[in-house]
Amino acid sequence: MQPNEATRALLSRQIIDACLEMGRLGINQGTAGNISSRFQDGMLITPTSTPYGELTEDDIVFVDSRGVPETGCLPSTEWRFHLAIYQHHHDRHAVVHNHAPYATSLAIMNRAIPAVHYMIAAAGGTDIPCAPYATYGTEALSLLVVTALAERKACLLQHHGMVASEVSIAKALWLANEVELLARWYCQLLACGYQPETTPRLPAEEIAVVKAKFNSYGLRS
Ligand code: 13P
């Protein structure tokens, strides 16, 4: 096996394991969602509409930097925003998309998650924004995702779900799960009667302090 083939097989296995873990964590269901990893001049990504339990390493599709998939392979319909994230953020090496229940509930209400907890800093700033709705799999959605992620590592997708991007598959999955937990806390505050405008939140200066501390805390890669 050539070194590139070995790396591809390893990343493909990590993508499949992360897909299965999303199901175990309760942050995705059925054939919803997709995961990719930067690879060579493009990326490796889950195939479209395939149950995760049936995936083998050979099913993970390579898409090059022009958006062209390997012959005979059908990548996730969301390959556009995955590729666009890698092209706009050279520090991102993995992207996770899912339809997590609490994050998607907020996305349906078009609500960004505010700084209700210091873990918001893990996504890069004082909130997790919500990208406006566009049909799944379109260039329009890709542009909206790139805009929402300009200063963030994660965002919600209105009437759709969430996206998390990070330096590795393990970290992107970790961030996606943290976003879902933040969404759950915020949903519970709203259910207790807090209004979005009056929900207690941390000031921007404190989020900046926590963000700096995160440089030496948490998953290393
Ligand atoms: P794919 O099966 O094409 O990855 O689509 C799932 C999805 O969640 C679309 O947003």
TrEMBL record:
InterPro entries: Aldolase_class_II_sugar_metab (IPR050197), Aldolase_II/adducin_N (IPR001303), Aldolase_II/adducin_N_sf (IPR036409). SUPFAM superfamilies: AraD/HMP-PK domain-like. It comes from the Bacteria. The keyword Lyase applies. The keyword Mitochondrion does not apply. GO terms for cellular component: cytosol. Transmembrane segments: none annotated. GO terms for molecular function: aldehyde-lyase activity; metal ion binding. Keywords: Lyase, Metal-binding. This is L-fuculose-phosphate aldolase. It comes from Sodalis ligni.
